[in-house]
From TrEMBL:
Membrane topology: Multi-pass membrane protein
Entry protein name: NfeD-like C-terminal domain-containing protein
Pfam families hit by this protein: NfeD
Source species taxonomy: Bacteria, Pseudomonadati, Pseudomonadota, Gammaproteobacteria, Pseudomonadales
Native source organism of the sequence: Halopseudomonas litoralis
Principal location listed in the UniProt entry: membrane
């Protein structure tokens, strides 16, 4: 009887809602938060006396949670996970190396070799025959491989 009244009452729904919201911090997937919102809504409606029976509470929990999940998830995912804003679509220079001068560390064989940039060794590729000691410039980046050229790229002032 006591367990039934606890499961049927607002404390259960409020505690479940807060537990689901907190669980999102530990297992982020942007899903539990919407079920937490559904549980909180049922808890508030049960507290105010709008709904009373367990069957209606369960139905409302499912309905609120699914509406929140499918209706708000797309809009909230970016906000909940964060994003990078203010970047141009053409700005592909994630590490800020385009246009920097590099020193060729090994002869380029088959279009690949090693370069030194800011004291670090990088794998590089080039369509030009570069030799050890040559100076080159970064003209592109493909993952962690720099694309380099012997001619300096144009840079707008």
């Amino acid at each position: 009887m006591l367990l039934n009244s606890f499961l049927n009452g607002y404390p259960f729904w409020l505690l479940l809602g807060f537990a689901l919201l907190i669980s999102e911090f530990f297992v982020p997937g942007v899903i539990a938060v919407f079920f937490g919102l559904g549980a909180l809504a049922v808890g508030v409606l049960t507290l105010t006396g709008v709904i009373e029976s367990l069957a209606v509470q369960l139905f409302c929990f499912g309905a609120f949670s699914l509406v929140a999940l499918f209706g708000l998830r797309r809009r909230c995912t970016r906000w909940l996970r964060g994003s990078v804003g203010g970047r141009s679509q053409t700005d592909l220079d994630d590490v800020g190396v385009l246009g920097n001068r590099v020193t060729v560390m090994t002869d380029f064989v088959g279009g690949t070799g090693d370069v030194q940039l800011n004291g670090a060794k990088w794998d590089a590729e080039s369509n030009e025959p570069l030799r050890t000691g040559d100076t080159a410039w970064v003209v592109g980046i493909n993952g962690i491989v720099l694309r380099v050229s012997a001619s300096r790229p144009y840079q707008a002032s």
